[in-house]
Amino acid sequence: MKTLIELNTTFNFKWTDGQTWLVLGNDDLAKKDFFDTLATKKVVQSGEIHYPFAKDYLDATPIGEYRRAADRISYISFRHHFRNKSNISQFYYQQRFNSFEIEDSVKVIDYLESLTINKTGIWNVDRVTDRLQLSELIDKPMISLSNGETRRLMFAAALIKNPEIILIEHPFVGLDASTRVAFDALFTEIVESGIHLIISSHHREIPSIVTDVIIFDKDAMPKQRKIDDFKINSISSQYSDKKQFTTDNIKPLLNSKEPLRYNNIVLMNNVNVRYGSKQILENVSWDIRQGERWNLRGPNGAGKSTLLSLINGDNPQAYANDIILFDRKRGSGESIWDIKKKIGYVSPEFFQFFPTQQTCFDIVCSGFFDTLGLFRKCSASQKKIVLQWLEATGLSGEENKCFDKLSISQQRICLIARALVKSPPLLILDEPCQGLNTEQKETIKGLVDQLCADSEITVIYVSHYPEDIPRCVNKSLSLENGCVVANV
Fold first, then answer.
1. Which parts of the chain span the membrane according to its record (predicted)?
2. What is the edge-to-edge ordering of all strands in the sheet holding 21-24?
């Protein structure tokens, strides 16, 4: 049996031909280190790692050319590394909603055709656009893709290299139900094409192609199992990040100042958004009253992100539509910062754009200024409030940790605390449970339920998973192809 990768460190891991691995467990940082090590992004400090799968490729290195094992590995992580046409400026969050910025963004088809294709494999541009459901997106600027569409493009980019190995962090993140089903069949096709997979995922979403499992639990040696011998309850919950959120912790912070009263948090009448010939939203009407808790749902590309951008002040097309936010019509003289100070917002894109080397404290404190990172000094009173929210949300003691050193669930809670420090009347949570295990999801849901029980905060909650929606959310708006198909 051919050995692909052999890792000999504090534990031994041997990956052989015919194995498709699933990575599970509640130690998020250990799982990330494991992936980074296999991908050659992290140097082995004690022990050694070998890449027998790349031996023939490395031995055939032409004179004057530099080769490494990483050339034959694709790594699909949470963060993408797309750039604009000038290749000198990384994307920033609001850029995706500005027409003049979109013009500087590479189209999907141009990006795919610019990639170096290993012609010894079967994965070419036509095949990846077909299998990843990108055919209707090929002329779309990359920057305007939704979270789920971006994930599919990342898969396409990984496949088009025709690598020998693909490492995938949470492949189902950001994907709607139908796309998740299609991906299970796609994984089988990928393996049958000769590519080897190792996947981190939730234990309730195990691709049928998986043969072996490695489990990283905190304060325990990694456990390796055949999938047929794997039992879900073998994953320890003893060290989960689940916290108990109580009225004593949160209620004083939520009620520290008299809440402002509004007739309409959001009132949209026949809203339309178009980019070129592409209709993104068509005659959308939505009335959100203070204290209501809404679930915004719809498949990938339905228009959810665009709809939220109109509310959050990021999309300039709001001025061309009949939209009232917090009892004031858009375009009547308010700035986007007047809007943002009333909204706490968490979205999948935030994980792309936040400076990961800033501390947990700085990230939460940046919520006072509505910036993606802290770039000014906080006052003494603001610092006090930050520490109170860190205590209330179970992050006390983590304030000096860099954002990328927090566990995934701690990162999510950190960004929710950032959204809440200014006591906003509206909280928007876009897929806050992405990549979390069951215990961690219950933590987030419990926090939202507690917030709603102790205040009149208005909530818009987005999720592709019905089981991830908190109990307090009792109203729903559904989009499909930019149109409202249900409002209950």
1. none
2. 73-76, 165-169, 196-200, 21-24, 212-215, 223-226
CA angle 173, 367, 387 (to 5 degrees): 105
Query: Using an 8 Å Cβ cutoff, are 466 and 299 in contact?
Result: no
- Which stretches of the chain drop beneath a pLDDT of 70? 79-104, 232-248, 256
Residue 217 and residue 25 in contact, taking contact as beta carbons nearer than 8 Å: yes
Burial 419-441 (b: 16+ CB within 10 A, else e): bbbbbbbbbbbbbbbbbbbbebb
Contact 298, 463 (CB under 8 A): no
- List of E strands, 88-164: none
Inter-residue contact 468 to 460 (CB < 8 Å): no
Q: Which residue has the tokens 């999907």?
A: 108
Report the b/e string of 459-488 with b at 16+ CB within 10 A. Answer: bbbbbbbeebbbebbeeebbbeebebeeee
Q: Is pTM beyond 0.90 here?
A: no
Among the listed residues 190, 193, 246, the one whose alpha carbon sits nearest the alpha carbon of residue 394: 246
List, for residues 298-336, the tens digit of each pLDDT value: 998 899 989 999 999 888 899 999 999 999 999 888 888
Closest among 463, 488, 464 to 476, alpha carbons compared: 488
pLDDT at site 89:
43
Measured between alpha carbons, how far is 424 from 414 in angstroms, rounded to an integer? 16
CA distance 407 to 141: 32
User: What pLDDT does residue 332 have?
Assistant: 87
